[in-house]
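Example A, followed by Example B.
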Amino acid sequence: MRLLPLLVGFSTLLNCACPQNCTNTACLPNAKCEIRNGAEGCYCNMGFSGNGVSICEDDNECGNLTQSCGEHANCTNTEGSYYCMCVPGFKSSSNQERFITNDGTICIEVNADCHLDNVCIAANINKTLTKIRPIKEPVALLQEVYRNSVKDLSPTDIITYIEVLAESSPLLGYVNSTNSAKDALSNSTLAEFVKTVNNFVQKDTFIVWNKLSVNRRRTHLTKLMHTAEQATLRISQNFQKTTQFDANSSDVALKAFFFNSYHMKHIHPHMNVDGDYIKIFPKRKSAYDSDGNAAVAFLYYKSVGPLFSSSDNLLLESQSHDNSEEEERVISSVISVSISSNPPTLYELEKITFTLSHIKGIKDYNILTRITQLGIIISLICLAICIFTFWFFSEIQSTRTTIHKNLCCNLFLAELVFLVGINTNTNKLFCSIIAGLLHYFFLAAFAWMCIEGIHLYLIVVGVIYNKGFLHKNFYIFGYLSPAVVVGFSASLGYRYYGTTKVCWLSTENNFIWSFIGPACLIILVNLLAFGFIIYKVFRHTAGVKPGVSCYENIRSCARGALALLFLLGTTWIFGVLHVVHASVVTAYLFTVSNAFQGMFIFLFLCVLSRKIQEEYYRLFKNVPCCFGCLR
């Protein structure tokens, strides 16, 4: 009996702590059954109103509450709930697009004219600096700036964070670490810095920069670029050994060099991005006796040109193609170089060279691309027919057809790899392999073009030669010599295979000459052979057929000369001319003559050859559908 009060009390506690489930009452979908004061009943869910038995309607919080979302906000009712959104010109204090009133969020004004108010902007800078000052690690500081500037920037934000970066520049060069970890930390800091600066100058920010006046735009952009130069130099000086560091983002690229006086003779600081090139040349000294080190930092800005224009509306200016004499424009990308040496006289400049491309590019680029693609596709089909012809028709087999066959095979493979892989530059390793294959197959094609010229010269001169010996040497020259050139080039500069734009040889350090050099030599040899062959053929035709007019002789030789031009690869001279003096004319001549080279080879070697016509006639003469067209 003494336990009875205790059991009753314990039962009461259980009833309070654990809600009891209803057993006999059915409620509406937007209501639930609860036991209150010992009785079962239906009660509407939160966000609904009614008696819970016959009605439970959605509670319109937006209509029933006075200023449910506060000032400068719109309320949107949803089933069982609601949300608030700030009106244009305001943003939520929590930086969330949707919010409810009970979380303390309010709408604050986005002052679009704050950048014109020095007091406003100074207060914003001080507030941001106060927030960031406790961060002492360079990488963490840059990550904080990056996180706050990655999207939804305002003019005030741009000005504020540029000032923050300028104020923090000395801190970025401070590395509190052991010597062994300094290099890795410097690499991380430089990479993070490039990402952060890229946030402020990428094309997506132009609409924000456009809200600034021309003078303010130029002032703050110049300050950002100056800060970038100073910061990258300070960070680069922390390297403990000779280093070359590269970092790339969508619109900013960095190339930093650090070296001591002993390596100065062997370091040639330069930068090449998308055809824009800069190289510096230090003064030559008789001896580098003084100990010291130097840091060189190149910064490339892809899209900042329009930001420096004198137009009040840079968005309209960047889309305009007319040249107004009253407007100032930067019509290229921007490259800067900064140098620091200790002692200051250790690394002094003698000269600087640079090449910058027009920001609009060549208008005919798309047309040339389409011509190239169409020409290569047609050439591949024609070369495939040539290979089949020279390989399987036994009646025409000779030294000459063997050379034709190998030339067509190498040209087919080169153009196939070009068509499939020239633009696959997303993977660096794969792009380098494509560039290496193109280098080899095009050199092999040139080698067999050279063999074509040598063989024709031997025929015209009438030299008697050993066929087996000649074939062996032809194969050695046609396949081994390109392999030697590619192998030697790859061993010296494998990193120059593949560029940021296309999978081809880089122009850095004149590496492209590992292809242009051998190609020009072969073109020169073939031009000499071409001239001699045409001269001999013309003399022979005039002597054998004295009754034929000079005009007929010239026309006959011209047909043969045209065939030889494509067979010997002499049309590639247009490519050399385009490299020496680029113009629209040379671009079109080179593209048309070489994209369709396979088609021209097919026409001159197969279609116009009487022997091959007879072979195809024998092949198809029993096919009813083809007999009529071959008669």
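Example B, a separate protein, is given below in the same form.
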Amino acid sequence: GRTDLTTELDVVDRADPFADLRVIGAFRDLYLLCEDDAELLVVDQHAAHERVNYERLQAAVDEVSLPTATLDPPASVSVSPAVASLAEAHADLLADLGFDIEPFGGGTLRVSTVPAPLGRTADADAVRATLDTIAAGETPDDPRDALLAEVACHPSLKAGEQLSTEEAEQLLARLGECEQPFACPHGRPTICRIDEATLAAGFDRESTRFD
């Protein structure tokens, strides 16, 4: 289920919660398998990277303009008339986030630049996904948060992107620096914990130890 971002995530020890984790493998090039002294932790690398990107984007937007990438030729994004109107209404906000957009007629938006945060270029469809969210009335109090969440999602690691052990450790280190490391910006958990007792019960053991 989704994590309550206003309660559970506020109570986080600011010491790196993942400092003692050891990366021991991966499953389906999406889930990082890690262990500490008492638990097996499964980390969703997409959700974790999305959280890292989101918080770094928040900091960047608060301080300076985001780096952008020029699309040559510009991308055409098909949207409904209502979403096209919404794009015009939020044009300044989209520009602040690195999107250069203009109506192209017939329910089409022409996207000339996209955000390129952290060395990764956002997909032009991030515009449509973000505006669809706002049009559906699912946007939070600050519309920028919805936009940032979508911008953070599209350049984040996806299933099938294999990480080396060093890259996985770097991702965990960055996640440990986040203010709210245990959920992605949409509220989905980044980590699933499996304690030793749960594993033992699955094998009809009192303990996983051999002593």
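On Example B: The beta strands are 22-27, 31-35, 39-44, 68-78, 100-103, 108-115, 191-195.
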